[in-house]
């Protein structure tokens, strides 16, 4: 076939199919790619979806190209074929592609770690990963999982053309060959869209360990650049660091959101402390004046806050899994963000300990007997006793005299907030609601259905639905009534389930929480009903009793030393230790 005036799709298909007749250099292919890809060009997303994402055949070809089994040497041979330029530059179309390709190189290279060693071929592979990642940004998990999506991907199988284990191994291979953390962002998206189909393979490969190590390499690279005198070099590294660190953090989100406690714990196995330290390291680098970043002060402030909230999620998970967590030194503003929440948790633990102590020495010896919503308990102790002593509208009883008014108000608000959170988690999660069931909507597709009464509990099939309905501890036959009532009074989709950030259902503005609370107050929701939701909701994310780990992973002290180096001698940048208070 003549090279003159070739179709753009021919460039792609001949290259992606590795046909012998393709003879285009990396720069030329980058130019062709720019005509389709909105990263970092000027095409708008709507145009991108219309022009590219509906072409499922082409995107499936990209996936098959990226995840075909090859040795490192075979990939290097593909790179080598794109290095010498033998394109007929007299052809105006091809000449224009080269011009575009040169522009892309100048824009993309600074985004890569170690851009000085990047080539047009590496840049092209990076852009292919960006292509599928942007496509997933515009897709919807539920429609993809049920095979109803009209745009790519049409089902989770589009993301695993050669199986889950191959997907993970090829991602690790590309991470060694391409200096772009976009690989890890895409990996997190695969976890989100494929769920139980890929989780075992990611966990078996200890994938998060590779991600954390890549993050540490990124931080080391940025730290070396910070100390260089050339401002242009520091500016380029600043651009790269912000984008690359965001991709690392995005993967960590996928290990924490919509996962059971057991799964999240397994994901960070071996890097429990390092993952927290890494985010603190990122904050030190982001705030170093010698490393200029893109965006204004508000943008950077929001960027830092996202890191801080991830630290809180990770620490909340980690501290429950160790008999003793070492003191973790944090960036000062990170400590300021998460310490108030941890202080509130410590207060609740102390209150719970007091109630347990009173229960331990009680002489009546009666057990807690669960009750139906609206009924008073016959004999209840500890946290249940506290809850039973008041109702939301304050018409009955009062909190124990040992609690101050401030503690009473805090306990009341926390109880309401916990109930809201669990209802929202149940609404937005994509896993089976049955305790410890490993199935997700991605692995069961259209069989995955909600309870027809409360429209909240999710089941992977009839067997789990029947199991939940007759569960000994929290039978859904009883919980369903309470769930339905609180959702109805809380105005469901219009208020309680309003979700500006579907990826994080726990995020719910305080002003909306207060509105839901007021609705529940006026609707006469009882304390028992709140407790019912809290106990049921806790089982949605629980995996049973987890063994306590005696000591953290090796190497965390090296990260600690690096934090000290980043802090320097400036008084306002000195790290603050987060002192562990074990669960009681």
How would you describe this protein?
The protein is mainly α and 584 residues long. It folds into three domains: 1-144, no CATH class; 179-345 and 552-584, no CATH class; 366-541, no CATH class. It contains 25 helices and four strands. It has helices at 8-16, 26-34, 45-53, 56-67, 72-81, 92-108, 120-137, 141-145, 164-177, 182-194, 199-204, 207-226, 231-256, 261-267, 272-286, 297-318, 332-360, 382-388, 405-428, 441-444, 462-469, 476-489, 510-522, 527-541, 556-567; strands at residues 328-330, 449-450, 458-459, 576-578. It has a two-stranded antiparallel sheet with strand order 1-4. The protein has a two-stranded antiparallel sheet with strand order 2-3. Strand 2 and strand 3 (458-459) form a beta hairpin. Helix 2 (26-34) packs across helix 6, helix 15 (272-286) packs antiparallel against helix 16 and helix 22 crosses helix 24 (527-541).
Give me some keywords for this one.
584 residues, two-stranded antiparallel ribbon, 58% helix, mainly alpha, disordered N terminus, 4 strands, 3 domains
Biggest β-sheet description: 2 strands, antiparallel
Detail the poorly predicted runs.
1-6, 38-46, 356-401
Between the first and last Cα atoms, what is the distance in angstroms? 73 Å
Based on CA inertia axes, which overall geometry fits?
globular
Number of separate strands: 4
Q: Work out the strand percent.
A: under 5%
Describe the secondary structure blueprint for this structure.
Elements: H1 8-16, H2 26-34, H3 45-53, H4 56-67, H5 72-81, H6 92-108, H7 120-137, H8 141-145, H9 164-177, H10 182-194, H11 199-204, H12 207-226, H13 231-256, H14 261-267, H15 272-286, H16 297-318, E1 328-330, H17 332-360, H18 382-388, H19 405-428, H20 441-444, E2 449-450, E3 458-459, H21 462-469, H22 476-489, H23 510-522, H24 527-541, H25 556-567, E4 576-578
Antiparallel strand pairs: 1-4, 2-3
Helix pairs in contact: 1-4, 2-6, 2-7, 4-7, 7-10, 10-13, 12-13, 12-15, 13-15, 13-16, 15-16, 15-25, 16-17, 19-24, 22-24
